[in-house]
Amino acid sequence: PGPTVIAVATIGVAINTLTALLFIRGQRDANVRGAFLHMAADAAISAGVVVAGIAIWLTGRTWIDPVVGIAITLAIVAGSWGLFRESVDLALDAVPRGVEPAEVTAALAGIPGVTEVHDLHVWAASTSETSLTVHLVVPEMMTHGRVLAAAGSLLRDRFHVAHATIQIEDAAAGAACPQRPTEVL
């Protein structure tokens, strides 16, 4: 059985490694990274079977098999931890890494004509797109189109927000907004 196990596992290493290489370019997307990690783990398991098979065949020490299995398990858990955390963040609609709400608020507040920014919500719409909703208060006579265009460009170019919903409020009616905070921390 030793040589047969080693031969079959060697074929598994080759096939799984080649398949993993097909996914290596799409590492920014969590789904593609998950597929890559799955195939890489399968290749590692097959490599572990080859190593354990050769070692057991040459030495007769069967305890090598569970030791290699535990080592592979630990490597898989360590390698997939980041993907697990990213998946939990996505499921919980957490603010994407690299986007600081305070920085977004400050940047939007810096747009000429914007007097207040509130009710900002930022979340990952998918593994590769960020969404945002926000209320911007502008003077009553200000042209809203210019503020919307400036805010949309800023969010897309600086913060990579693919989908933004921006509500413009007139400063005179700003106090009437139910989402306006009563206190600013």
- Please report the number of helical segments: 5
Percent in strands: 15-25%
Total number of β-strand segments? 3
Sheet bearing the most strands, described?
A: 3 strands, mixed
Estimated radius of gyration:
26 Å
Fraction of helical residues: 55-70%
Query: Helix and strand string, N-terminal first?
Result: HHHHEEHE
Low-confidence stretches: none
Look at the helices and sheets and give the structural class.
Answer: alpha+beta
The gist of it:
With 185 residues, this protein is an alpha+beta fold. It has helices at 2-22, 30-59, 64-91, 101-109, 144-159; strands at 116-124, 130-138, 161-170.
How would you describe this protein?
- With 185 residues, the protein is α+β, with helices and mostly antiparallel strands.
- It has two domains: 2-91, no CATH class; 101-176, Alpha-Beta Plaits (2-Layer Sandwich).
- Helix content is 56%, strand content 15%.
- It is built from five helices and three strands, in the order H-H-H-H-E-E-H-E.
- The chain has helices at residues 2-22, 30-59, 64-91, 101-109, 144-159, and strands at residues 116-124, 130-138, 161-170.
- A three-stranded mixed β-sheet has the order 1-2-3, covered by helices on one side.
- Helix 1 (2-22) runs antiparallel to helix 2 (30-59) and helix 2 (30-59) runs antiparallel to helix 3.
- The N and C termini lie far apart (70 Å).
- The mean pLDDT is 87.
